[in-house]
């Protein structure tokens, strides 16, 4: 496992432990998931509400916080009020500079990572342009070429370089949940082009991006990592051959990213518009949480000890979250436990759990009302505990 340091011997002694990731240290094993909440300004710039929301996540005591699925392409985005990073826009740049400056002043001990994303065929054609790797029933859009993808990679590299210079602690490259990264990686992308067909071609997008970011920023005090759908659970999806599960390529993806300088992998499953049940297990399919644990363990077993592995899909554990994740971390199944919907339900979840105040926690009901708000393009929050 990555280097560990005891910070206490409470009820959840493994969750309490610090964790070295790259050259940074997370004070505990909680990682807030990147979750879109539709609360940017109309032009995509950072809003006061978004800053307040992330300040609350940091207040809650998690060692690491990943800032939601931030688009680099205002022309192709998945939600009307998706947060935008445009390094060529002085106003947008200043907004992010102020955002990180504020959070670092208030919470200097929290590891702050930004997830970068391109929606691809999940872009809405109502307020932006939908683009695709290969037309797919129910989605479609303008088919992109290698020159377009080359430009996307350059955008990610420029964004990472900017974030490094303004004090962000790292980037999470989104290769999951059916967005552009998934669309390029999945076997369904059988076009004969630079980024399709063979595994060598389909993995080029992820591998070249990671390698070039790390070449540009060799300093491991700036973390580089990725969120991966180990299995999408759709025909010819990531981790699927036809409809059968085959994680060979997903494991190869994680190993290849590690070889190119990645410090962490966030495990996930499913696709946002096709297999929400895998991505975010609820009480109708609680058994899917064990698929997340198994997927995280498969990645943990495949990587070097110093590469951190974060397990997702855990909110449905409810009152058993602490007991189960603490055991899994202690048993070496994964290194950090993600909190997604649960942190919407109660931003103070980590602090309450670790300080013996579990009785005060507002546990996520996994009703997926937050997901429904996102679908309806409304500011997203827990209907039982508004921030």
TrEMBL record:
InterPro entries: Aldolase_TIM (IPR013785), NADH_flavin_oxidoreductase (IPR051799), OxRdtase_FMN_N (IPR001155). The keyword Flavoprotein applies. Gene3D superfamilies: Aldolase class I. SUPFAM superfamilies: FMN-linked oxidoreductases. Residues 18-359 form the NADH:flavin oxidoreductase/NADH oxidase N-terminal domain. Keywords: Flavoprotein, Oxidoreductase. It comes from the Bacteria. GO terms for molecular function: FMN binding; oxidoreductase activity. The keyword Zinc does not apply. It holds the Pfam family Oxidored_FMN. This is NADH:flavin oxidoreductase/NADH oxidase N-terminal domain-containing protein.
């Amino acid at each position: 496992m990555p280097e560990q340091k005891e910070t206490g011997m409470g009820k959840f002694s493994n969750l309490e432990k610090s964790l070295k990731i790259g050259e940074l240290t997370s004070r505990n094993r909680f990682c807030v998931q990147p979750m879109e909440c539709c609360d940017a300004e109309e032009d995509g710039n950072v809003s006061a509400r978004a800053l307040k929301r992330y300040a609350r996540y940091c207040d809650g005591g998690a060692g690491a916080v990943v800032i939601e699925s931030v688009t680099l392409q205002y022309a192709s985005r998945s939600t009307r009020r998706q947060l935008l990073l445009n390094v060529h826009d002085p106003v947008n740049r200043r907004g992010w500079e102020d955002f990180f400056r504020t959070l670092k002043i208030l919470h200097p001990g929290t590891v702050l990572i930004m997830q970068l994303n391109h929606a691809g065929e999940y872009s809405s054609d109502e307020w932006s342009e939908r683009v695709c790797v290969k037309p797919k029933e129910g989605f479609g859009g303008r088919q992109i070429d290698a020159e377009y993808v080359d430009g996307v990679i350059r955008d990610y590299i420029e964004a990472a370089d900017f974030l490094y210079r303004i004090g962000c602690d790292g980037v999470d490259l989104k290769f999951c949940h059916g967005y552009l990264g998934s669309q390029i990686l999945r076997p369904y992308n059988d076009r004969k082009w630079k980024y399709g067909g063979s595994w060598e071609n389909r993995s080029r997008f992820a591998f070249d991006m990671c390698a070039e970011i790390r070449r540009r920023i060799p300093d491991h005090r700036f973390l580089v990592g990725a969120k991966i759908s180990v299995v999408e659970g759709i025909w010819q999806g990531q981790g699927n051959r036809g409809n059968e599960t085959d994680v060979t390529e997903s494991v190869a993806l994680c190993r290849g990213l590690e070889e190119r300088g990645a410090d962490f992998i966030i495990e996930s499953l499913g696709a946002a518009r096709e297999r929400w049940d895998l991505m975010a297990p609820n009480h109708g399919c609680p058994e899917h949480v064990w698929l997340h644990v198994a997927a995280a363990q498969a990645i943990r077993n495949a990587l070097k000890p110093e590469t951190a592995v974060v397990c997702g899909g855990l909110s449905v554990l409810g009152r058993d979250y602490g007991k189960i994740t603490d055991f899994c971390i202690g048993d070496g199944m994964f290194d950090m436990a993600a909190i997604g919907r649960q942190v919407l339900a109660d931003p103070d979840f980590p602090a309450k759990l670790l300080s013996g105040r579990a009785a005060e926690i507002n546990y996520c009901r996994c009703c997926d009302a937050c997901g429904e708000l996102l679908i309806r393009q409304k500011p997203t929050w827990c209907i039982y505990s508004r921030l």
